[in-house]
From TrEMBL, chain A:
Transmembrane region(s): 45-66
Protein name: Membrane magnesium transporter
Pfam families according to UniProt: MMgT
Protein's UniProt keywords contain Transmembrane helix: yes
Keyword Mitochondrion assigned: no
Membrane topology type: Multi-pass membrane protein
Automatic annotation (TrEMBL), chain B:
Known partners and oligomeric status: Component of the ER membrane protein complex (EMC).
Cell compartments where the protein resides: Endoplasmic reticulum membrane
EMC2 TPR-like domain residues: 100-209
UniProt entry keywords in alphabetical sequence: Endoplasmic reticulum, Membrane, Repeat, TPR repeat
Keyword Transit peptide: no
Topological category with respect to the lipid bilayer: Peripheral membrane protein
The protein's name in its UniProt record: ER membrane protein complex subunit 2
Coarse class of the protein's main subcellular location: endoplasmic reticulum
Role summary: Part of the endoplasmic reticulum membrane protein complex (EMC) that enables the energy-independent insertion into endoplasmic reticulum membranes of newly synthesized membrane proteins.
Family: Belongs to the EMC2 family.
Amino acid sequence: MGLGFIFGVFGVLFLFHAAYSTIQYRGLLKIMEEEFSGPPMNVVLELLLGFVFCVSAALTVPGNFLSIHPDSEENRIVSLPANLDFMIFNHRAKALPLEIDMKLKH
Amino acid sequence: MVSKTEETQLNRLENQVDNGGGGAWDYLCLVRKLKVRRSEKVFKYGLSILNDPKKRSALGPEEWTLYEQVAIAAMDCQCLDVTKDCIKVLQKKFPESKRVGRLNGMLLEAKGSWAEAEKAYSSLLEDNSLDQVIHKRRVAMAKAQGNISKAIELLNKYLEIFMADHDAWRELADIYVSLQMYKQAAFCYEELILSQPTVPLYHLAYADVLYTLGGLENLQTAKKYYASTIDLTGGKNTRALFGICLCTSAIAQVSKGRNKEDKESPELQSLAATALEKDYKQRAADKLGLLTSALRSLKI
Protein backbone atom coordinates (compact mmCIF):
# COMPACT_ATOMS: atom_id res chain seq x y z
CA MET A 1 0.00 0.00 0.00
CA GLY A 2 2.90 2.34 0.80
CA LEU A 3 4.63 1.85 -2.52
CA GLY A 4 1.43 2.37 -4.49
CA PHE A 5 0.72 5.53 -2.56
CA ILE A 6 4.22 6.91 -3.29
CA PHE A 7 3.74 6.08 -6.96
CA GLY A 8 0.46 7.99 -6.88
CA VAL A 9 2.04 11.04 -5.29
CA PHE A 10 4.86 11.04 -7.82
CA GLY A 11 2.39 10.61 -10.67
CA VAL A 12 0.37 13.63 -9.56
CA LEU A 13 3.56 15.68 -9.14
CA PHE A 14 4.71 14.74 -12.64
CA LEU A 15 1.34 15.78 -14.07
CA PHE A 16 1.42 19.12 -12.31
CA HIS A 17 5.02 19.72 -13.42
CA ALA A 18 4.10 18.87 -17.02
CA ALA A 19 1.16 21.30 -16.87
CA TYR A 20 3.36 24.05 -15.43
CA SER A 21 6.01 23.42 -18.11
CA THR A 22 3.40 23.64 -20.86
CA ILE A 23 2.07 26.94 -19.51
CA GLN A 24 5.63 28.34 -19.31
CA TYR A 25 6.34 27.10 -22.86
CA ARG A 26 3.20 28.86 -24.15
CA GLY A 27 4.25 32.05 -22.40
CA LEU A 28 7.65 31.78 -24.00
CA LEU A 29 6.12 31.27 -27.43
CA LYS A 30 3.85 34.30 -26.91
CA ILE A 31 6.91 36.41 -26.22
CA MET A 32 8.62 35.03 -29.32
CA GLU A 33 5.30 35.40 -31.23
CA GLU A 34 5.28 31.88 -32.59
CA GLU A 35 2.39 29.40 -32.95
CA PHE A 36 1.70 26.99 -30.16
CA SER A 37 1.46 23.63 -31.89
CA GLY A 38 1.96 21.38 -28.92
CA PRO A 39 4.09 20.93 -25.86
CA PRO A 40 7.72 19.83 -26.41
CA MET A 41 8.64 16.15 -26.58
CA ASN A 42 10.02 15.82 -23.06
CA VAL A 43 6.84 17.31 -21.57
CA VAL A 44 4.76 14.73 -23.46
CA LEU A 45 7.05 12.01 -22.12
CA GLU A 46 6.68 13.35 -18.61
CA LEU A 47 2.91 13.42 -19.10
CA LEU A 48 2.81 9.78 -20.15
CA LEU A 49 5.03 8.79 -17.23
CA GLY A 50 2.80 10.64 -14.78
CA PHE A 51 -0.26 8.93 -16.30
CA VAL A 52 1.25 5.46 -15.94
CA PHE A 53 2.23 6.17 -12.31
CA CYS A 54 -1.26 7.45 -11.44
CA VAL A 55 -3.04 4.50 -13.05
CA SER A 56 -0.81 1.95 -11.33
CA ALA A 57 -1.41 3.67 -8.00
CA ALA A 58 -5.17 3.71 -8.59
CA LEU A 59 -5.15 -0.03 -9.21
CA THR A 60 -2.93 -1.06 -6.31
CA VAL A 61 -3.88 1.28 -3.47
CA PRO A 62 -7.57 0.35 -2.93
CA GLY A 63 -6.77 -3.32 -2.31
CA ASN A 64 -7.98 -6.64 -3.76
CA PHE A 65 -10.62 -6.67 -6.44
CA LEU A 66 -13.77 -8.65 -5.67
CA SER A 67 -14.86 -11.43 -7.99
CA ILE A 68 -17.94 -10.81 -10.15
CA HIS A 69 -18.53 -14.25 -11.60
CA PRO A 70 -21.69 -15.81 -10.13
CA ASP A 71 -20.13 -19.25 -10.29
CA SER A 72 -16.78 -18.38 -8.72
CA GLU A 73 -15.77 -20.05 -5.49
CA GLU A 74 -16.70 -17.03 -3.37
CA ASN A 75 -19.88 -15.96 -5.06
CA ARG A 76 -21.68 -19.23 -5.71
CA ILE A 77 -25.00 -19.52 -3.94
CA VAL A 78 -24.84 -22.26 -1.36
CA SER A 79 -28.23 -22.14 0.30
CA LEU A 80 -31.45 -20.18 0.14
CA PRO A 81 -32.58 -18.09 3.11
CA ALA A 82 -34.94 -20.01 5.39
CA ASN A 83 -38.47 -18.83 4.72
CA LEU A 84 -38.84 -16.94 7.97
CA ASP A 85 -42.15 -15.33 7.01
CA PHE A 86 -43.75 -18.77 6.96
CA MET A 87 -42.02 -20.06 10.08
CA ILE A 88 -44.21 -22.24 12.27
CA PHE A 89 -43.66 -22.82 15.94
CA ASN A 90 -45.23 -26.19 16.63
CA HIS A 91 -42.31 -28.27 15.49
CA ARG A 92 -40.68 -31.23 17.19
CA ALA A 93 -38.25 -29.02 19.10
CA LYS A 94 -41.14 -28.28 21.44
CA ALA A 95 -40.45 -31.63 23.07
CA LEU A 96 -36.76 -30.84 23.57
CA PRO A 97 -36.39 -28.38 26.43
CA LEU A 98 -33.70 -25.77 26.20
CA GLU A 99 -30.90 -26.50 28.68
CA ILE A 100 -30.20 -22.91 29.56
CA ASP A 101 -33.07 -21.31 31.39
CA MET A 102 -32.56 -17.61 30.90
CA LYS A 103 -34.90 -14.77 31.66
CA LEU A 104 -34.95 -11.17 30.56
CA LYS A 105 -33.72 -9.13 33.52
CA HIS A 106 -35.44 -5.81 33.89
CA MET B 1 -29.20 -16.00 -1.00
CA VAL B 2 -26.32 -17.22 1.05
CA SER B 3 -23.09 -17.26 -0.92
CA LYS B 4 -20.07 -19.39 -0.05
CA THR B 5 -18.11 -16.52 1.49
CA GLU B 6 -21.07 -15.52 3.60
CA GLU B 7 -21.52 -19.09 4.77
CA THR B 8 -17.87 -19.43 5.79
CA GLN B 9 -18.10 -16.06 7.53
CA LEU B 10 -21.20 -17.18 9.41
CA ASN B 11 -19.60 -20.44 10.49
CA ARG B 12 -16.45 -18.68 11.56
CA LEU B 13 -18.38 -16.15 13.66
CA GLU B 14 -20.49 -18.95 15.12
CA ASN B 15 -17.39 -20.87 16.20
CA GLN B 16 -15.86 -17.73 17.57
CA VAL B 17 -18.90 -16.86 19.64
CA ASP B 18 -19.38 -20.45 20.79
CA ASN B 19 -15.83 -20.60 22.10
CA GLY B 20 -16.25 -17.39 24.02
CA GLY B 21 -14.37 -15.12 21.67
CA GLY B 22 -16.84 -12.24 21.58
CA GLY B 23 -18.35 -10.84 18.37
CA ALA B 24 -21.89 -11.79 19.35
CA TRP B 25 -23.40 -8.59 17.93
CA ASP B 26 -21.70 -9.17 14.54
CA TYR B 27 -23.02 -12.72 14.53
CA LEU B 28 -26.56 -11.54 15.27
CA CYS B 29 -26.37 -8.90 12.53
CA LEU B 30 -25.14 -11.47 10.03
CA VAL B 31 -27.91 -13.90 10.97
CA ARG B 32 -30.44 -11.13 10.49
CA LYS B 33 -28.96 -10.14 7.12
CA LEU B 34 -28.78 -13.68 5.73
CA LYS B 35 -32.19 -14.61 7.18
CA VAL B 36 -31.05 -17.98 8.46
CA ARG B 37 -32.83 -19.75 11.25
CA ARG B 38 -30.42 -20.17 14.16
CA SER B 39 -32.91 -19.66 16.92
CA GLU B 40 -31.07 -21.31 19.83
CA LYS B 41 -27.87 -19.36 19.34
CA VAL B 42 -29.67 -16.09 18.61
CA PHE B 43 -31.70 -16.60 21.77
CA LYS B 44 -28.69 -17.39 23.95
CA TYR B 45 -26.35 -14.65 22.75
CA GLY B 46 -29.03 -12.03 22.13
CA LEU B 47 -30.40 -12.46 25.63
CA SER B 48 -26.93 -12.22 27.13
CA ILE B 49 -26.45 -8.89 25.34
CA LEU B 50 -29.86 -7.62 26.42
CA ASN B 51 -29.31 -8.60 30.04
CA ASP B 52 -26.08 -6.62 30.22
CA PRO B 53 -27.06 -2.93 30.58
CA LYS B 54 -23.67 -1.69 29.37
CA LYS B 55 -23.80 -3.67 26.14
CA ARG B 56 -27.45 -2.79 25.69
CA SER B 57 -26.81 0.95 25.83
CA ALA B 58 -23.87 0.53 23.44
CA LEU B 59 -26.31 -0.66 20.77
CA GLY B 60 -28.26 2.57 20.59
CA PRO B 61 -31.37 2.44 18.40
CA GLU B 62 -30.51 -1.08 17.21
CA GLU B 63 -31.59 -2.32 20.62
CA TRP B 64 -35.23 -2.60 19.54
CA THR B 65 -34.38 -4.68 16.47
CA LEU B 66 -32.49 -6.99 18.80
CA TYR B 67 -35.53 -7.24 21.06
CA GLU B 68 -37.63 -8.27 18.08
CA GLN B 69 -35.03 -10.80 16.92
CA VAL B 70 -34.72 -12.32 20.39
CA ALA B 71 -38.52 -12.42 20.78
CA ILE B 72 -38.89 -14.45 17.59
CA ALA B 73 -35.98 -16.73 18.51
CA ALA B 74 -37.48 -17.28 21.96
CA MET B 75 -40.79 -18.27 20.37
CA ASP B 76 -38.94 -20.77 18.23
CA CYS B 77 -37.24 -22.21 21.33
CA GLN B 78 -40.53 -22.27 23.21
CA CYS B 79 -39.39 -19.87 25.95
CA LEU B 80 -42.63 -17.93 25.95
CA ASP B 81 -41.94 -15.95 29.16
CA VAL B 82 -38.94 -14.29 27.58
CA THR B 83 -41.03 -13.55 24.51
CA LYS B 84 -43.73 -11.93 26.63
CA ASP B 85 -41.16 -9.76 28.43
CA CYS B 86 -39.53 -8.66 25.17
CA ILE B 87 -42.89 -7.78 23.65
CA LYS B 88 -43.84 -5.84 26.77
CA VAL B 89 -40.68 -3.77 26.51
CA LEU B 90 -41.30 -3.13 22.81
CA GLN B 91 -44.91 -2.20 23.45
CA LYS B 92 -43.88 0.33 26.07
CA LYS B 93 -41.53 1.96 23.59
CA PHE B 94 -43.76 1.75 20.48
CA PRO B 95 -47.36 1.70 21.74
CA GLU B 96 -49.27 1.90 18.47
CA SER B 97 -46.99 -0.24 16.38
CA LYS B 98 -48.24 -2.77 13.83
CA ARG B 99 -44.96 -4.67 14.12
CA VAL B 100 -45.53 -5.22 17.83
CA GLY B 101 -49.11 -6.25 17.08
CA ARG B 102 -47.76 -8.82 14.68
CA LEU B 103 -45.38 -10.12 17.34
CA ASN B 104 -48.34 -10.47 19.67
CA GLY B 105 -50.15 -12.49 17.03
CA MET B 106 -47.10 -14.72 16.60
CA LEU B 107 -46.95 -15.23 20.36
CA LEU B 108 -50.57 -16.41 20.35
CA GLU B 109 -49.65 -18.76 17.51
CA ALA B 110 -46.71 -20.14 19.44
CA LYS B 111 -48.92 -20.71 22.47
CA GLY B 112 -51.30 -22.66 20.29
CA SER B 113 -54.36 -20.43 20.67
CA TRP B 114 -55.20 -20.43 16.98
CA ALA B 115 -58.59 -18.71 17.21
CA GLU B 116 -57.23 -15.76 19.15
CA ALA B 117 -54.29 -15.42 16.80
CA GLU B 118 -56.70 -15.46 13.85
CA LYS B 119 -58.73 -12.70 15.54
CA ALA B 120 -55.59 -10.64 16.15
CA TYR B 121 -54.47 -10.99 12.55
CA SER B 122 -57.90 -10.11 11.14
CA SER B 123 -58.04 -6.96 13.25
CA LEU B 124 -54.59 -5.99 11.97
CA LEU B 125 -55.76 -6.69 8.43
CA GLU B 126 -58.77 -4.42 8.88
CA ASP B 127 -56.47 -1.46 9.34
CA ASN B 128 -54.31 -2.39 6.38
CA SER B 129 -55.70 -5.10 4.13
CA LEU B 130 -52.55 -5.25 2.00
CA ASP B 131 -50.08 -6.17 4.72
CA GLN B 132 -47.97 -8.90 3.15
CA VAL B 133 -46.50 -10.32 6.32
CA ILE B 134 -49.87 -10.76 8.03
CA HIS B 135 -51.21 -12.67 5.02
CA LYS B 136 -48.18 -14.92 5.15
CA ARG B 137 -48.62 -15.49 8.87
CA ARG B 138 -52.18 -16.64 8.22
CA VAL B 139 -50.88 -19.14 5.68
CA ALA B 140 -48.28 -20.35 8.20
CA MET B 141 -51.01 -20.73 10.81
CA ALA B 142 -53.13 -22.84 8.49
CA LYS B 143 -50.08 -24.98 7.77
CA ALA B 144 -49.29 -25.34 11.48
CA GLN B 145 -52.81 -26.47 12.22
CA GLY B 146 -52.42 -29.17 9.60
CA ASN B 147 -55.03 -27.65 7.30
CA ILE B 148 -52.92 -27.86 4.14
CA SER B 149 -55.76 -27.27 1.69
CA LYS B 150 -56.69 -24.04 3.44
CA ALA B 151 -53.01 -23.04 3.38
CA ILE B 152 -52.88 -23.67 -0.38
CA GLU B 153 -56.08 -21.69 -0.92
CA LEU B 154 -54.85 -18.72 1.12
CA LEU B 155 -51.46 -18.82 -0.55
CA ASN B 156 -52.99 -18.89 -4.02
CA LYS B 157 -55.18 -15.90 -3.17
CA TYR B 158 -52.11 -14.10 -1.80
CA LEU B 159 -50.13 -14.84 -4.95
CA GLU B 160 -52.92 -13.48 -7.15
CA ILE B 161 -52.28 -10.10 -5.56
CA PHE B 162 -48.54 -10.25 -4.89
CA MET B 163 -47.23 -12.19 -7.84
CA ALA B 164 -43.64 -11.15 -7.36
CA ASP B 165 -43.13 -12.65 -3.92
CA HIS B 166 -40.47 -15.32 -4.37
CA ASP B 167 -40.72 -16.69 -0.85
CA ALA B 168 -44.41 -17.35 -1.31
CA TRP B 169 -43.86 -19.18 -4.59
CA ARG B 170 -41.15 -21.23 -2.93
CA GLU B 171 -43.46 -22.07 -0.03
CA LEU B 172 -46.25 -23.08 -2.41
CA ALA B 173 -43.84 -25.31 -4.34
CA ASP B 174 -42.75 -26.96 -1.08
CA ILE B 175 -46.36 -27.60 -0.08
CA TYR B 176 -47.19 -29.10 -3.47
CA VAL B 177 -44.15 -31.36 -3.35
CA SER B 178 -45.14 -32.54 0.11
CA LEU B 179 -48.56 -33.44 -1.29
CA GLN B 180 -46.95 -35.08 -4.35
CA MET B 181 -48.72 -32.66 -6.72
CA TYR B 182 -45.64 -32.42 -8.89
CA LYS B 183 -47.14 -30.70 -11.92
CA GLN B 184 -48.26 -27.75 -9.81
CA ALA B 185 -44.92 -27.71 -8.04
CA ALA B 186 -43.19 -27.59 -11.43
CA PHE B 187 -45.31 -24.56 -12.33
CA CYS B 188 -44.23 -22.78 -9.14
CA TYR B 189 -40.58 -23.53 -9.81
CA GLU B 190 -40.97 -22.23 -13.36
CA GLU B 191 -42.24 -18.93 -11.94
CA LEU B 192 -39.25 -18.79 -9.62
CA ILE B 193 -36.78 -19.50 -12.41
CA LEU B 194 -38.40 -16.84 -14.61
CA SER B 195 -38.06 -14.17 -11.96
CA GLN B 196 -34.61 -15.15 -10.65
CA PRO B 197 -32.78 -17.06 -13.37
CA THR B 198 -29.37 -16.86 -11.73
CA VAL B 199 -30.20 -18.78 -8.56
CA PRO B 200 -28.99 -22.34 -9.23
CA LEU B 201 -31.01 -23.90 -6.42
CA TYR B 202 -34.28 -23.22 -8.20
CA HIS B 203 -32.95 -24.96 -11.32
CA LEU B 204 -31.93 -27.88 -9.15
CA ALA B 205 -35.32 -28.18 -7.47
CA TYR B 206 -37.11 -27.90 -10.81
CA ALA B 207 -34.91 -30.62 -12.28
CA ASP B 208 -35.65 -32.81 -9.25
CA VAL B 209 -39.39 -32.39 -9.73
CA LEU B 210 -39.15 -33.12 -13.46
CA TYR B 211 -37.05 -36.20 -12.82
CA THR B 212 -39.66 -37.39 -10.31
CA LEU B 213 -42.46 -36.87 -12.83
CA GLY B 214 -40.64 -39.08 -15.30
CA GLY B 215 -41.32 -39.64 -18.98
CA LEU B 216 -38.83 -39.06 -21.76
CA GLU B 217 -39.44 -35.33 -22.33
CA ASN B 218 -39.35 -34.51 -18.63
CA LEU B 219 -36.14 -36.48 -18.20
CA GLN B 220 -34.48 -34.63 -21.05
CA THR B 221 -35.56 -31.26 -19.67
CA ALA B 222 -34.41 -32.32 -16.20
CA LYS B 223 -31.00 -33.17 -17.61
CA LYS B 224 -30.79 -29.70 -19.17
CA TYR B 225 -31.64 -28.05 -15.86
CA TYR B 226 -29.13 -30.16 -13.94
CA ALA B 227 -26.57 -29.00 -16.49
CA SER B 228 -27.52 -25.37 -15.97
CA THR B 229 -27.20 -25.84 -12.20
CA ILE B 230 -23.69 -27.18 -12.69
CA ASP B 231 -22.96 -24.17 -14.87
CA LEU B 232 -24.22 -21.68 -12.32
CA THR B 233 -22.42 -23.23 -9.37
CA GLY B 234 -19.09 -23.80 -11.09
CA GLY B 235 -19.42 -27.56 -10.86
CA LYS B 236 -19.45 -27.64 -7.07
CA ASN B 237 -22.99 -28.91 -6.59
CA THR B 238 -22.76 -32.67 -5.98
CA ARG B 239 -26.49 -33.22 -6.29
CA ALA B 240 -26.58 -31.82 -9.82
CA LEU B 241 -23.68 -34.04 -10.87
CA PHE B 242 -25.53 -37.08 -9.55
CA GLY B 243 -28.65 -35.81 -11.31
CA ILE B 244 -26.90 -35.83 -14.66
CA CYS B 245 -25.72 -39.42 -14.20
CA LEU B 246 -29.16 -40.61 -13.09
CA CYS B 247 -30.97 -38.75 -15.88
CA THR B 248 -28.73 -40.17 -18.58
CA SER B 249 -29.21 -43.72 -17.38
CA ALA B 250 -32.99 -43.20 -16.97
CA ILE B 251 -33.25 -41.79 -20.51
CA ALA B 252 -31.27 -44.74 -21.83
CA GLN B 253 -33.63 -47.10 -20.05
CA VAL B 254 -36.81 -45.38 -21.24
CA SER B 255 -35.68 -45.19 -24.87
CA LYS B 256 -34.28 -48.71 -24.94
CA GLY B 257 -37.18 -50.17 -26.88
CA ARG B 258 -37.61 -47.23 -29.24
CA ASN B 259 -35.48 -46.53 -32.29
CA LYS B 260 -32.25 -45.06 -31.13
CA GLU B 261 -31.99 -41.48 -32.29
CA ASP B 262 -28.65 -41.36 -30.51
CA LYS B 263 -28.57 -37.62 -29.98
CA GLU B 264 -27.34 -38.32 -26.50
CA SER B 265 -23.59 -38.20 -26.39
CA PRO B 266 -22.21 -40.13 -23.43
CA GLU B 267 -19.65 -37.39 -22.81
CA LEU B 268 -21.80 -35.48 -20.34
CA GLN B 269 -22.32 -38.50 -18.12
CA SER B 270 -18.66 -39.50 -18.15
CA LEU B 271 -17.63 -35.93 -17.38
CA ALA B 272 -20.06 -35.76 -14.48
CA ALA B 273 -18.83 -39.13 -13.20
CA THR B 274 -15.22 -37.95 -13.35
CA ALA B 275 -16.06 -34.76 -11.51
CA LEU B 276 -17.89 -36.75 -8.83
CA GLU B 277 -14.98 -39.11 -8.35
CA LYS B 278 -12.56 -36.22 -8.01
CA ASP B 279 -14.81 -34.54 -5.47
CA TYR B 280 -15.20 -37.72 -3.42
CA LYS B 281 -11.49 -38.43 -3.50
CA GLN B 282 -10.89 -35.00 -2.10
CA ARG B 283 -13.60 -34.85 0.54
CA ALA B 284 -14.64 -38.42 1.47
CA ALA B 285 -11.98 -40.80 0.22
CA ASP B 286 -13.31 -43.75 2.20
CA LYS B 287 -16.64 -43.59 0.35
CA LEU B 288 -15.04 -43.63 -3.09
CA GLY B 289 -15.63 -47.39 -3.45
CA LEU B 290 -19.38 -46.94 -2.89
CA LEU B 291 -19.45 -44.21 -5.50
CA THR B 292 -17.65 -46.19 -8.20
CA SER B 293 -19.86 -49.24 -7.73
CA ALA B 294 -23.01 -47.05 -7.85
CA LEU B 295 -21.86 -45.31 -11.02
CA ARG B 296 -20.98 -48.63 -12.62
CA SER B 297 -24.48 -49.97 -11.95
CA LEU B 298 -25.93 -46.80 -13.55
CA LYS B 299 -24.09 -47.23 -16.81
CA ILE B 300 -25.83 -50.51 -17.50
